[in-house]
Amino acid sequence: EVLGRPMWDVQLEQMPAQVRSEEHRAAIRQRFERLLLEPPGRALGVPGSHELTHADGTTRYIKETVFPIQLTHGRLLGGIVHDLTENRRLEEQLRHSEKMLAVGQLAGGVAHDFNNQLGGIMGFADLLRAELSHEPRLAVYADNIVRSARRSAELTAQLLAFARKGRYVDAEVDVHRLIGEVVSVLGRTLDKRIVIEQRLRAQPPLTRGDPTQLQSALLNLAVNARDAMPTGGRLEIATDLVTLDGAEVRGLRIPCPPGRYLRVAVVDSGVGMTGDVLQRVFEPFFTTKPPGRGTGMGMAAVYGAVQSHRGSIAVQSAPGSGTTVEVFLPAIGPNAADDAPAPAAQPLAGSGRILVVDDEPEVREATVLLLRAAGYDATSCAGGRAAVELFAAGARYDLVLLDLIMPEMGGSETFHTLRMHDPHVRVLLCSGYSRADEADTLLGAGAVGFIQKPYDAAELSRQVAEALAHAAPRPPHG
User: Fold this and answer.
1) Comparing 158-162, 205-209, 384-388, which segment has the lowest mean pLDDT?
2) N or C: which end of the chain has fewer CB within 10 A?
């Protein structure tokens, strides 16, 4: 379209219409005429890049280099145009990834520390509730503390999901079943003016991962869609199987390899989002909802869940045109193997000598008191080094409840050193993070279980009973 046309006319077209004038045309033409007077072959590029409107209406980012060319009958200007649009997109994607990584590290650290504090709150509230069993009016207060602590733990779980601090269950997941459960939950709370449509075409609708985490992500998307339609509308949840090539995956918010994916689309006819909101939609604590109506963690948790499942996500939205969120999860074929049944619940009461190793004093004290209330002979120490000194002096315990994240001597070093003194020691790991690679490594090396903070009295006693029932580990090789 520009062949055979003066370069100054082409450049003038790229300027805003309101500043185009004969004066601008003359100034641009004089600039190019001056360039013709420069020595032949000398590059006259302008540093940096500028925007150019493509014929299809899209914006491209280009860098131009022009230079005079000496011909037999005069001179003309030659030019090279470098299209930097893909470079610009990759740079923006890299900056976004680095920002999300930094925010994720911060969020994971906050969630870990908060879970430790919640552990103390929940433990003491459980103890208080037991002491007030004959005072129903006061016991209600303890119940409310426990309930609030659990809701706070759900928020930190979303932070950990965003931060990807830990691996979750790895099982075959029927996404259609999860969608059915989400729709069932929504059906009891949804405005009657919102119509739900399901278009579930994926066969088989299978991926691998944590069903609870994926269900939570789908529920967050559906709730956001509901909130975007305060006066009613249409909510569509659709699935199909797609094959993404290299160009398609490069356009997604989370990098992922080309391949076969299970696509889940959540589409609403709501108010939509502006471009600025769309850019920040996955940031933790960013929300457009009024105070008290949202934490800003829903979409951040979705982002973390999709990323931890090696998938990707795309969002399209515009004011007044609704929103479409597409989640891409790695597709798998059918598998006849069923998930293992959940272990039977263990009784709360028990007996045995237990050592609690934790650097948080409130967590230590609450855990010891909970264990003693359940019938155990429990004691504690403030870190790994103190625990090793006890074992080196000949102390032996039926079970060690060992925190993974501690100063000076961390959980992994403590575990291996304890086993040097007592090869048969049973160790139950715990952490304010979700179960992570370090925990999996130690479980493979002989640890007998993992419990995530914050835990209540019932969960603690059940996990302890299961750990004590576990066969004593074999001595480490060598």
Assistant:
1) 158-162
2) C
Mean pLDDT for the chain overall = 79
CA–CA separation, 362 vs 117, rounded Å?
A: 8
What are φ and ψ of residue 371, in 5° steps? -65, -40
Q: Please give the Cα distance from 351 to 328 (Å, whole number).
A: 49
Phi, psi of 245 (to 5 degrees): -95, -175
Helix (H) or strand (E) holding 150: helix 136-163
**Quick count: other Cβ atoms within 10 Å of Cβ 381?**
19
Count CB-CB contacts under 10 A for residue 59.
10
* pLDDT greater than 60 at residue 464: yes
pLDDT band of residue 257 (cuts 50, 70, 90) is confident
The phi, psi pair for 41, rounded to 5°, reads 85, -10
In this predicted structure, the answer to whether residue 25 has a pLDDT above a threshold of 70 is yes
| pLDDT for 329 | 94
Helix (H) or strand (E) holding 260: strand 259-268
User: Please, where are the H alpha helices in 287-360?
Assistant: 298-308
Positive or negative, the CA dihedral 99, 96, 159, 306 is negative
Most confident of the following: 138-147, 159-168, 374-383:
374-383
The structure's pTM equals 0.46
Q: Which of 65-69, 95-99, 298-302 has the lowest mean pLDDT?
A: 95-99
R_g (Cα) of the chain, nearest Å: 31
Q: How far apart, in whole angstroms, are the C-alpha atoms of residue 408 and residue 389?
A: 14
| 407-414: Cβ within 8 A, 24+ apart | 407/359, 407/383, 408/383, 408/384, 409/383, 409/384, 409/385, 410/384, 411/384, 411/438, 411/442, 412/438, 412/441, 412/442, 413/384, 414/357, 414/384, 414/385, 414/387, 414/388
Residues 6 or more apart whose CB falls under 8 angstroms from that of 133 comprise 139
Distance in angstroms (rounded) separating the CA atoms of residues 96 and 10: 34
Report the distance separating Cα 237 and Cα 225, nearest Å: 10
In this structure, how many other beta carbons lie within 10 angstroms of the beta carbon of residue 288?
Answer: 15
